[in-house]
Amino acid sequence: MPTRALNAFAAAVHRLRRWHGMSLADLAEKTTYSASYLSKILHGERRLAPALVSEIDDILDAGGELIQLAREQDSGDRPRSRPMQLPAAPADFVGRASILHELDAALVSDARPGAPITAVIEGGFWTGKTALALHWVARIEQRFPGGCLFADLRGLAPGSALTPDEVLDGFLHALDAGPDAMRGTLAERAAHYRSLLAQRPAVVVLDNIASYDQVADLLPGAGSVVVLTSRERQSSLLLRTGGVHITLPPLTAHEALTLLRMRAGHARIDVERDAAIRIAARCGHLPMAILIAAERIQQHPREALQTLAERLDSDTRRLDVFTSSDPAVNVHAVIDLSYLALAPRTRRVFRLAGIIPASLISADAVAVQCGLPATTALDALDELRHAHLVDDAPDHSDQVQINDLLRSYATGRAIVDDPLSEIEHAHDRLLRWYAATAWRAAHALAPGWADPVLECPSPVNPPFTTGDYEAALAWCDKEAHTIIDIARHARSHNAKDAAWILPTLLQPYFQLTDTWTTWLTAAAEGLAAARDLETDLGIGRCTQSLGWALHHAGHTDHALDHLRQAADLQASSGDRAGLAWSEFATATAYSSAGHHVEARTAYEHAAQLFDQTEFPLGAAIARALLAATHEALGNNDRARAYANDALACVLTIAPRHPAAALAHHQLGIVLSAQQQPRAALTHFDAALTIHRHSHQPRCHAETLEARGNALLALGLVDAARASYRDAMELWQNLHDRRGYELHARMATLSPPDGEARAIGASSPDGADIRPTVGP
Known about the structure:
Rossmann fold; disordered C terminus; disordered N terminus; 37 helices
């Protein structure tokens, strides 16, 4: 049912009631009339009685305003025009449901005494700020007797931005203010404008504003709604007006595909869905870019979508699709507005940051790329955020993201505005910094793993100290995907060994975190680069890395093929450090396949090579897993000897390293097999203490499950169940079937009456074990 427009008198009563916090029933109680009768009067179904009007004016402290409005309304004076300046809302509007709900909620609850309801919509180019404003206002404008006023202030357009005087004169004319009202000073005309809107509240849309100063005299008073859009952050405006603040992001991937389907045709998009998804992604999921791409698809009905997708994949040809003689749909002209408003230093940071070949980049990387101090780079990035030329990363890390269109624009600007030598130096600085930092991270995660042949000096120090495990792990978490992008770009720009060394240096990180999907990508990229360079060292290391990743992905046969190839190449080229890891990875693949004899031989060879290459941590890890292999073969005494040897070794090198947790875990397993569950618990608890900080959920779950087995052997069923439950949650988070198997096992546990507490048994955090409630 359509919403009925209120007359000026009714709108004023509604506004004043809300100001005083009074409902219609509250107002009726203070008069001699019923709420039903008041409702009919306010909806124009009854004439306005002078006595009632005077009574309501006094109750609401209107100061005669209601009496004057009633007199004008009752006298049959010519009604003033109800301006409707709102341009047509977009025909195809997709998504934004949560934002529209937020705006609707503000309309109901955000009224403040003396202030209009204010909504500020910010965002980068082509995100659909104006379309959102038009779509929402078109839904609500019938509620406002003063209609709708609209002005495009062209805030960033050099030399063509509208002044408050120009806009205000247009608004007063639309409101039938009369010639006298338009002769005063700006302040006098603004006061008259607000007085008119106080009588007949309206929706005011101020599009493309530059600053608070540009719109201060255009803001209405209480009762009206003002919607403002801007390319830049309007901190000063929000500080003064409050209201709803919306930073409009691009569409989601699903919404972008829906819009493309609506404009380019459902059948055509559905037939080439993968190409359509690529097109939407390369458009940055920006509504206007999607519409331009859809228009091109319609204009070329016989051209496959794959052709457009490939064109948009090209950094050098991408922007051609969005180039037009119409400035509103010409990507160069649109981005120029924001870019040219920047300070020169910030423009340079944008150009050089934009040529970093990754969608997510850190402030440290930007500082290195631009050759600037970190604080200076941070300041420039803040200015770019203000202009919405970069956005914060989706995970709210300290990285920023730049969409493909902006990166292509920045690259084009850099080619024109910066000497080629400076661009090359920037690439070189960044590549060497990433290689040096990745080497330090690898050394921190696996001390001694990163041998000197992989080291690359950098003119800028890495952002964490040598040996800082936590910082190295956090850096790899943040930068792994960017490193792969950097390495891929380095390969195409003839950066030689760095193209395969960079992804290879992530191997300890991948091994510790079990992120095998990213590992597969990194290893494949590194191997392709090494083969291009025809380097036996690189081919061997990258083939080994790919084989290890395939093993973690569950492709054991393919993994063993790659690992044998790597081992043969490394043996012939004399790369003993690489051969040690190939043998170690081969052993783990054999072990997981149940070939324990072959695993034992490979582990023994790996341990021997680690000793020869002076990598004691590797030797300790190999011996810890040899303990597990001998335990599987039934050689309990040898298993215990290897486990003790591994633990003693690793405790002298890195007692808080995950390798120490592995050694404690394996010794606990051996002790459990030798029917010494109480002694095993001590080592499981020590392993768990390390696991809480090592970010290895799979190893953590294995130790919790083994600890539960030891507790069960002691008759502590409830305590075992608690340990199993923690393990089960980790397995399920990893989508590992062992979580469901453990859940089924827990269901069969039933504690005996009067279960005793084991003396000396402890929980992972060192507290005495208490029987707990089962799941």
